[in-house]
Amino acid sequence: MILSSIRNVVFGYGEAPVLNGISLEIHAGEFVGITGPNGAAKTTLLKLMLGLLKPWRGEVVIHKETLGDRGLKIGYVPQQVASFNSGFPSTVLELVKSGCYSRLGLFKRFGSEEEALVERCLKQVGMWEYRHRKIGELSGGQKQRVCIARALAGEPNVLILDEPATGMDRESRGGFYRLMRHYVDEHGITVIMVTHGLEEAQPFLDRIISLEQKESEEWTCLTTSSCSARFGPALFSE
Amino acid sequence: MFDYEFMQRAFWAGAFLGIIAPMLGVYLMLRRQALMADTLSHVSLAGVALGSLISMNPLLSGFAAAIAGGIAVEYLRRTYRTYSEVPVAIIMTSGLALAIVLMSLQTSLSKSFSSYLFGSIVAVSPLQLGVVGGIAAAGLLYFAILRRPLYSLTFDEETARIGGTRVKALSFSFAVLTGMTVAAAMPIVGVLLVSSLMVLPASLALRISGGFASALLIAVGTGLAGIFSGLTVSYYTDTPPGGTIALILLLFLVAGITVKKGVLYANKRKHPLHRERVHPKNEVKENVL
C-alpha cells in the first residue's frame, strides 16, 4: 500500500532547481535507503517528504488512510545530531522521555507504560547505562543513538533518518541496521533513511533510491532499485 | 525591615520576579537569546517615551512596545534562521535609538526616565505589584501547561515541528510572555538591570545542574536568594537595590563556577583514572548497537 507519493516535484534554494521533476512512491512497511553523492539534495528530499519545505511545483501526498486509526506519527532523526547545543542541560533519560510527549499531549501522566517504553528504547540502542549522563558529556555516536531512542520512544509508524549511522563504529552500524529491520518486520513501521554507507546497509534494505546528477549540476534525476533482503527476527537482545 | 509597607511590597515583587525571570532566562539562553531581555527593555523604554509624548499611560505603552518588540524579534528570527543573535541586535539598537529620539522631544520627563533606567524596587506601587503578580501567575501557568512542547522546541525546533508541536504559535507566545515580564520588571529593577535577573541565575543553573528540571529549579532558587539577600543588604547598607541584587547574583555565579571547578579538580585528583574512565571515546562498548 502506498504511504507517500511525490509527484513531479521541483524545488531549489536559489533560482535554479536542485530537484527537478522528481516522482516516487514510498510503500507502507518498507525499509528504504536514499543515497547519492554530496549535494545531491538527499536531505532536501527528506524535508520535502516531511513538509518542512514546500515544493515550487508538484505535490507531496501522504495517504493517511493507509495508516488506519492511529494516523501519521513521524519519528525523525536529523543530520549531525552531534552538533546540537552541547550545553543543553538535559540527561539522556529526560531527552528520550521527551520522545513520548507528542503521544501524551499536554496533560496525560507519564506512566509505567511510558517508563517501560523508554527503558526498552534506551536498551535497544545500548544507552541505558548512560541514562543519567548529561547529553553534553556524550560522544557524537552516543548522541546519535540517544536521538534514535528518542524517535523510537514516540512509537512512530514512519521513521525518517538523515544519515543516522554517522559517528558510529562498524559494529554499531550493523546493530543499528538490524534494529531498523526488526522495527520494519515486527512492528510494521516504514523506515526512510538517507545513507552514504550503502554497502553495509544494502542487505537490510527493501529498496534503494539513488539521486544522480544530470549534465546540468542543479538538476537531479532519480533511479530506484529493489533489494531482495528479508530478515527474520532481529539479532539483538534486550 | 518588614515593619515598612514599602519593604513588604519590595519583597513580594522580588519573589514574583525571582520565580518567573530566571525560568524565562533558562529558555532564552538555550535558544541563544540571552540579550532578549536587554533588547525588550530598550524597546519598552521607547514605548514609555512615546506614551508620555502622546499622553498615554506610560505603563501601558511600555507594555505594548515590549510585546511588539518580542514579536518583532521572533519574526526576524525566522528571516535570519542561522544568526539568531542578529534580530536581537537589530531590535535592541532600533529600540534604543527610538527611545533617545523620543526622550529628546520631551526634556521635562528626563527625571521620570531615569527612574526607568535604574528602577526602584522599594518604590513599587500596589498597582505595579499587582501587575507583576499577575504576570508571574500567568507565566507559571504557561510553563506548567506547556512544559513539554517548550522542552521539545528548545532542544530542536525542526524535530519539534515534525513531532506535531505548534512551533510558530509557541515561539510567538513565548516572545509575548518575555515582553510582558520585561515590561513589568523594568520600573522595578530598571532597564539596565532587568536582564541580570534572567541571565545570571540561568547562567549558574546551566553550569551546575544535572538535568533540565533541576536547571529550572536552581535558576529560580538562585534568583530568589539573590533578590532577597540583595534587598536585605541594600536596606542595611543604603545601596541601590537593583545594582546590589545584580552584584549578589554575579557573586553567586562566580562562587558556583568556582565550587564546581573545585569539585571537578578534587575528583580528578582523587581518581587519577577518572578522566580516562568517563571519557566518551573510552566507553565500554554496548552489546546491542
From TrEMBL, chain A:
One family name in Pfam for this protein: ABC_tran
Molecular function GO terms recorded: ATP binding; ATP hydrolysis activity
Keywords: ATP-binding, Nucleotide-binding, Transport
Gene3D superfamilies according to UniProt: P-loop containing nucleotide triphosphate hydrolases
Keyword Transmembrane: no
Database matches in CDD domains: ABC_Metallic_Cations
ABC transporter domain mapped to chain residues: 4-238
Matching PANTHER family: HIGH-AFFINITY ZINC UPTAKE SYSTEM ATP-BINDING PROTEIN ZNUC (PTHR42734:SF4), METAL TRANSPORT SYSTEM ATP-BINDING PROTEIN TM_0124-RELATED (PTHR42734)
Protein name: Metal ABC transporter ATP-binding protein
UniProt organism field: Paenibacillus faecis
